[in-house]
Amino acid sequence: MHFSSPIFLYLLPLALIPIVIHLISTMMRRRRPFPYVKLLKATRQQQKGWKRVQDLLLALLRSSIILFLILFISGPYLSGGRFPRRVVVDVSASMEPHREEISRILSSFEGINTVFLSGRVYRSMPERFIYSLDSALLEKYRDSLTLLISDFQRSSVPDTSLFMKLQMNPPSNPSAIVNVEDMGDSLVIDIRGGDYVEVRKGDSILSVLRAKPRVILREKEYPGFIQIYLMPMDDLPFDNIFYAYGGRSSRISARVLGSGLERKLLSGIAEGIFGDTSSSGNLIMAVGHTRDVRSALSSGKRVIMFGALPEVPHRSTRNILFRGIPLDSALVFDNGLPYLITDEVFFIGIPLDDIVMHPALMEWFYSMALDFSGSEKVIYTYAGQRITFPYRVSLISPDGEVLRGTSLVISDTGYYTSVDGSIVVCSNINRSESDTSFYHVEGYSFRRQDIGWIFLLLSLFLFLLEILFIGRSH
Prior knowledge:
Blueprint (H helix, E strand, L loop, with lengths): L1 E2 L13 H11 L9 H37 L2 E5 L5 E5 L8 H9 L5 E5 L28 E5 L13 E4 L8 E7 L3 E7 L3 E6 L2 E7 L3 E5 L5 E8 L9 E6 L7 E4 L2 H15 L8 E5 L5 H5 L4 E5 L7 E9 L2 E9 L5 E3 L3 E4 L3 H6 L1 H15 L3 E6 L2 E12 L5 E9 L3 E5 L4 E6 L18 E4 L1 H22 L1
Parallel strand pairs: 3-4, 3-5, 5-6, 14-15, 15-16, 16-20, 21-25
Antiparallel strand pairs: 1-2, 2-26, 7-8, 8-11, 9-10, 9-12, 12-13, 17-18, 19-20, 22-23, 22-24, 24-25
Helix pairs in contact: 1-2, 2-8
């Protein structure tokens, strides 16, 4: 026998109260003189034994009523086969269509420890499911007394051995936007299934394209905030929507000055950040000692320059620690940092190859260059991901909430924009949820039969019996 609310079982000692009261009253019963003892002596001897039995039966009857009422409110039930010690629920995005069925199943396990498993958090799941657990931690729960509820996509549950399993049915029409890659000046979209692709801006349809396995969108043709819809929508509608931002290459282009390998490195960085490098760019990026630096500085354009001019106060230093990375050599300016920003020039005192070799420095430079150039920094991520910024930012969520800090969790799908317009975060679902490879498992069947009504009827029957018993004794 199991209990859905076992905490009420702590009240069981209360059932002993009538018996304890009976024992105390028996011990404290006093003798009183009576003048006609001889006349009543025979009668008392006959009734004394029967009275004690009546009192004891009445105490036991009352204790039983209390006992059955406590068992009733504890929610007793019987189950067939093994019963799980805990329940682990997969709440990845592909489980969203089954949320009502999951709620119904969980109602039969009330009182049992429940863990919600997901590497990501999705707004589309019920609020009670929003509890994120790294799938790597699932190992501690992997045993034969844990019931795992999932659709068993390989992307969501990597190891299902030992678990009792209850499988949700996979979607009947798993078409999806499988992968989207930002190539700087275009979006490369990998598609599975579907008939056509709609590019929308708000409620307006900008373009309708045939759904091919790979679709390429030129961002400059779709400026600003856009949504990509794979039509017709399938059983998992969130798998058919992608939030994107375009038009950056038409705003900022970078002209690269330098020579040799350094110029090639800088050209690759410039193309990765701004998506466009041309001789007429409205931003100049310079490296090394070139004859064009002076003319670049007097061009009226903004300049990002590696190194420093002689008239810019700086000193050469070795073994400097910057953003947790030890640098063998760098140029340190009067501000004590290996970079200096003026109105039109961004001096970088860190060697270019050091920036290329260290991802943390590359991320810092990427953000600083976008801010300095006045271009938006566009980040593609997915719901539940934490993003770390090189400086404190203020982002407005799709619901209008303002998030502030250097490390923010992007919990919802949609657009996050900074207050000053310099950052755009396009939050989508984790595309790995579109994986079509499923485990084939047999669902674990369990039975539950509530028996609380039996204890309620017993308590009512004993209560009526007590009333009849008291009435006849008087």
